[in-house]
């Protein structure tokens, strides 16, 4: 395929769609397919009279509008569609229009939008409709990415699938007479061979459900409907959903006996089910092959990095990813040679069992069915969501009729001696409880389509009308308040608030989103130990003190049942972080932080001295480590997220790479991957015959120098031994708002990391433009990440417009005419500059998407796109 018949068009307000289009072009070129990237308006000038394919990346701006650089194309296509409809006003299908302008065009659309706006991805959906009306047809499914939860959650797997589509159609065509069922069977066989054991090992791995802290299970929302005013007619309600699947119990006998359950009908220990490792995770990019497979990693050590006075509790865990005898699915040697500094991994974190127990109890699910095995029945297999396809009842029937069954361990608590039902015949299928435990996101606020079903299930007409109002366009302000990061509303909160709602489990299974893995950056180097991952994270908690947790507007405080109707739960806890903290038995907080010079006594002469620094076993203020002998968590290596790597000297073909300056910008636990960077740079220094003269600058923002200044002693060690050239730290929540630079001076002018960037603007510009420095940013996407990018854009905008040499270098870098230097550089030009830096590996961002509305997720994503409005 050549660039003559494959075009990529983008419509973008601030450059996001363009960056993604360039990325698609790059990946297509890697598989031998040439394409061209153009603005959407140029689509009108393109000839599609012969068979052609086109890819469209279109953002939605404002309230459902197309970007300003594409309005001409939208208007023209709208007129063409209107002419067709005017010529056939009755929409007579027996007389379809002929010679449609784009009938030889095959296309696909990637839409970018934000569900905080009513008309989500309206521009891309409208454009797709125009092309269909004008005779074009799709060759690959459209994708719609939501900036409210992270564009990359859709963009990355969509692009991956698109490239795979072209690989299959371009280099591996399948003949027409090939039996599709045979192909499907071969594909299934290839996947099954990744985990070939025909007999499950007798040793089983359990995790303890002992927790000090649980999110409330009896929260009732105080929703203020008065701000909506009088509503005569509801508008914008979602379309009614027709149920297409149902749960089928494979046995009426639970696989866990009542004697092993507590008062909440929950076992003390949960066994990791084998199907968790034999199938892909909820992350679309996971292919369950080689290095991507889910496996059990052993938690070897854990300790707390912050003091008791810290606003957030930060833990550091050491994972052993090697294979351990007699532990099924432990370790993954395929990863040893693949992971690099800056890479990340995912954790398959379960829901809080207490929340599931409360949900089942609220819906009156019989206790004797909670631990019965289930499958999913659907008239059409394609209607089963992808994260649940492995539980298709047809697969169970096929397995039962064709597969010889070997013995596997029962799924009961090992401490219970009662005889359990034989679970051999249910291998690969979950109990009802496990289905909700590992596969469904119950922490998320219900989508509007689910709200519509909940409203229909209400026996109280007043409650029904309230839910319908929230689901309608009229109630957008209420819904946005419920889904905000301050509210953290779950489906259980909704059901507690609307007591007459009696939605079925079938609806929940079909419409609840998949439980997403939690992703974390690795803070260590494979050159130290390829079988060990270190990572740090905040133990997330959120106080419920917003308007939704005030006394009910409809409840009298003198009512004797007032306190029962309006309990006052104080906090919700992070799904994965609280689980990990409990598994590690809550490592104690530090009494005080070590100082920058606490490791000065260590002589940096070899790798062993560096390891003693990394393990921090010499300082009297070293964190108290907890060793663990039988604590395992399911993880997977994110082989598709390798854009944040620090190339080392051995891997780089660039002989000048060891002279390239490095700028590391972070806040909070965003420093985690940079500790791996510094570890790598230190090892390179030890292994080099000559001194590596590289400029390495760290800009770090945290709250309190005495409570949460993470890795203080190690940073001081790297600074003293000149691995780190400049250490610049801003503290946001101390009385004098001190900022510490590499000379250990302080000032009240620097509260956030972007203040430090403003202070050093001239140095930053010189490092990037004149010395080709590489920029790495790690932290929160919505707050710090956006603010830092805006500050860098501002700094370089001023530099390009004030210094002619810089302006000339910009135009040359962007392949633009540089003859007239009187032309002012625009913010769009500066954004293009950073996008091109990103495309050549000189501007990398690892940004954390913290979606409190999705159950306090601690999701670290390789977020390499620019935030688009609308």
From TrEMBL:
<dbReference type="InterPro" id="IPR003097">
    <property type="entry name" value="CysJ-like_FAD-binding"/>
</dbReference>
<dbReference type="InterPro" id="IPR001433">
    <property type="entry name" value="OxRdtase_FAD/NAD-bd"/>
</dbReference>
<dbReference type="Pfam" id="PF00175">
    <property type="entry name" value="NAD_binding_1"/>
</dbReference>
<dbReference type="InterPro" id="IPR001094">
    <property type="entry name" value="Flavdoxin-like"/>
</dbReference>
<protein>
    <recommendedName>
        <fullName>Methionine synthase reductase</fullName>
        <ecNumber>1.16.1.8</ecNumber>
    </recommendedName>
</protein>
<dbReference type="InterPro" id="IPR029039">
    <property type="entry name" value="Flavoprotein-like_sf"/>
</dbReference>
<keyword id="KW-0028">Amino-acid biosynthesis</keyword>
<dbReference type="InterPro" id="IPR008254">
    <property type="entry name" value="Flavodoxin/NO_synth"/>
</dbReference>
<keyword id="KW-0949">S-adenosyl-L-methionine</keyword>
<dbReference type="GO" id="GO:0050667">
    <property type="term" value="P:homocysteine metabolic process"/>
</dbReference>
<keyword id="KW-0521">NADP</keyword>
<feature type="domain" description="Flavodoxin-like">
    <location>
        <begin position="6"/>
        <end position="163"/>
    </location>
</feature>
<keyword id="KW-0560">Oxidoreductase</keyword>
<dbReference type="InterPro" id="IPR039261">
    <property type="entry name" value="FNR_nucleotide-bd"/>
</dbReference>
<keyword id="KW-0285">Flavoprotein</keyword>
<dbReference type="GO" id="GO:0050660">
    <property type="term" value="F:flavin adenine dinucleotide binding"/>
</dbReference>
<dbReference type="GO" id="GO:0005829">
    <property type="term" value="C:cytosol"/>
</dbReference>
<dbReference type="Pfam" id="PF00667">
    <property type="entry name" value="FAD_binding_1"/>
</dbReference>
<dbReference type="Pfam" id="PF00258">
    <property type="entry name" value="Flavodoxin_1"/>
</dbReference>
<dbReference type="GO" id="GO:0009086">
    <property type="term" value="P:methionine biosynthetic process"/>
</dbReference>
<dbReference type="InterPro" id="IPR017938">
    <property type="entry name" value="Riboflavin_synthase-like_b-brl"/>
</dbReference>
<dbReference type="InterPro" id="IPR023173">
    <property type="entry name" value="NADPH_Cyt_P450_Rdtase_alpha"/>
</dbReference>
<keyword id="KW-0274">FAD</keyword>
<keyword id="KW-0486">Methionine biosynthesis</keyword>
<dbReference type="GO" id="GO:0030586">
    <property type="term" value="F:[methionine synthase] reductase (NADPH) activity"/>
</dbReference>
<dbReference type="GO" id="GO:0010181">
    <property type="term" value="F:FMN binding"/>
</dbReference>
<keyword id="KW-0288">FMN</keyword>
